[in-house]
Design goal:
Helix content is 40%, strand content 22%. By secondary structure, it is α/β, with parallel strands linked by helices. It starts with a strand and ends with a strand. The active site is at 245.
Length: 472
């Protein structure tokens, strides 16, 4: 069992002001794998003071100095790559092969992308009689989730460090192991003391202290829309910049001119990946009426064939949900959908046979769903897919946009003109046509209640920069 009770502040591992143990559990077997301490306002104050003092120098560092540090960071990350993958697999239940190939790779990818962007970013240019300078905003507070833990840490930290900002990070208390490894990586890379600081805690404690702190210049949060709203309110009194990457209920539009078996299969697998715990998962499959029944049959068969197993086992399977509380939430939403009249085509209530220990849930599909049902409007954040019919292109667009969220949308048709026409009308920050990849260099973020601002690549720099006009 790992003792992770110390915080990383001002380049040192320090004890919390007041110990408050919190148990970290392996969701595959419900065993305790570590203990952290939940921090207080005093711990946050210490971290912010360290970050503020460090910014006085780091904020004026040269591009070349920051490039050298990010190159060291990338090297240090690769040296601990397997350690990172193991931490993610243990803390949130990602199968080890998936944690290695996808989850841990996000850290590498975001460091490399920020490094590449830094080398060519135009921090200064002339407009009329003014010199326009893009300067680091200052001390940044980051509050990150458990579902893609190192992805959400590094896609914030890497551009912040690249632009000259300093950082106070609160990772999820449910999945803090990967953040602990990352703090060691920062230390390995030799960043100046105070540039990066880590304080564990919960949302009501450390999260609130960060979002309301008068000496934090911007806060970036990834998580639920409800929590994002609370953070915005908490930050309002100090008028700090707030960047939010929130929930989603992403439509996956399937027209009747596709290779149905291939596209439906990709849709089901995409929804179930990471046990459905992805904000951009294609959780609403919208299928043209003429092929709807066939699509439901295909989707049901695919869901029934998805393998489930412990996270420490190699192979192509999904793992458990992250916690007992989250398992209960997903189960309650499945139950409510059944009671509301949706047709249960696969999965359902309870744990899969043979998995009584651990927070495992069945890959679940609902058909004959009305888009007004809660199961079609609320983010489940589990392996639950709804399949909804549509008559024509216009109804597909209407249904796709009939959501409080606007993070991602998926469009499937070989007709490129139609795909472009539909994509243009999607009220979503990311549109993938025929399962094209979304690369680290593309902006990540959404419309409406899916948040504001954009992360990843060059676009991820904007939230960490102020714009100054110096006229002569």
């Amino acid at each position: 069992m790992k003792n992770l009770s110390h915080f990383y502040i001002n380049g040192q591992w320090v004890s919390p002001e007041k110990p408050n143990d919190f148990i970290v559990e392996n969701p595959s077997n419900e065993r305790q794998i570590g203990t952290i301490s939940l921090g207080t306002n005093v711990d946050v104050d210490k971290a912010v003071t360290a970050a503020r003092n460090a910014f006085n120098q780091y904020g004026f560092s040269s591009r070349e100095e920051r490039i050298a540090l990010l190159e060291k960071l990338l090297s240090a990350y690769m040296n601990r790559y397997d350690e990172m993958a193991q931490a993610i697999s243990q803390e949130m239940g990602a199968p080890i092969d998936f944690a290695t190939a996808a989850q841990a790779d996000c850290g590498r990818g975001h460091i490399q992308t920020a490094l590449d962007a830094l080398k060519n970013y135009e921090f200064q240019h002339t407009s009329g009689n003014a010199t326009i300078t893009h300067e680091p905003i200052g001390v940044c507070g980051f509050i990150t989730p458990w579902n893609w833990p190192i992805n959400q840490i590094v896609c914030k930290v890497a551009p912040a460090l690249a632009t000259g900002c300093t950082v106070v990070l609160k990772p999820s208390e449910i999945a803090p192991l990967s953040a602990h490894v990352f703090a060691k990586i920062i230390d390995d890379a030799g960043f100046p003391a105070g540039v990066f600081n880590l304080v564990n805690g919960d949302g009501m404690g450390v999260g609130s202290a960060i979002s309301s702190h008068q000496d934090i210049d911007m806060v970036s949060f990834t998580g639920s829309t409800r929590a994002g709203s609370l953070i915005s309110k908490s930050a309002a009194d100090t008028v700090k910049r707030v960047a939010l990457e929130l929930g989603g209920k992403s439509p996956n539009i399937i027209f009747d001119d596709v290779d149905l078996e291939s596209i439906v299969t990709k849709g089901v697998v995409g929804c179930m990946e990471n046990t459905g715990q992805s904000c951009n998962a294609p959780t609403r499959m919208l299928v043209q009426e003429s092929v709807y029944d066939d699509a439901v049959k295909i989707a049901t068969q695919v869901a029934n064939n998805i393998k489930i197993d412990r996270a420490d086992k190699p192979g192509n399977h999904i793992g458990p949900l992250v916690s007992k509380a989250h398992f209960d939430k997903v189960q309650s939403m499945i139950k409510e959908a059944i009671e509301s009249g949706a047709t249960l085509s696969a999965g359902g209530l309870g744990k899969p046979e043979g998995f009584e220990l651990g927070h495992f849930t069945k890959p679940t599909i609902f058909s004959n769903v009305n888009n007004k049902m809660n199961i079609a409007q609320e983010e489940v954040f589990g392996p639950v897919l709804v399949i909804i019919p549509f008559k024509d292109e216009q109804e597909a667009i209407t249904l796709a946009n009939d959501s409080p969220y606007g993070l991602a949308a998926y469009i499937n048709t070989p007709d490129e003109t139609k795909a472009s026409r539909v994509a243009r009308q999607m009220r979503a920050g990311m549109v993938r046509i025929n399962w094209a990849s979304h690369h680290y260099t593309s902006p990540f973020g959404g419309y409406k209640q899916s948040g504001n601002g954009r992360e990843w690549g060059t676009y991820g720099f904007d939230d960490y920069l102020e714009i100054k006009a110096t006229s002569r």
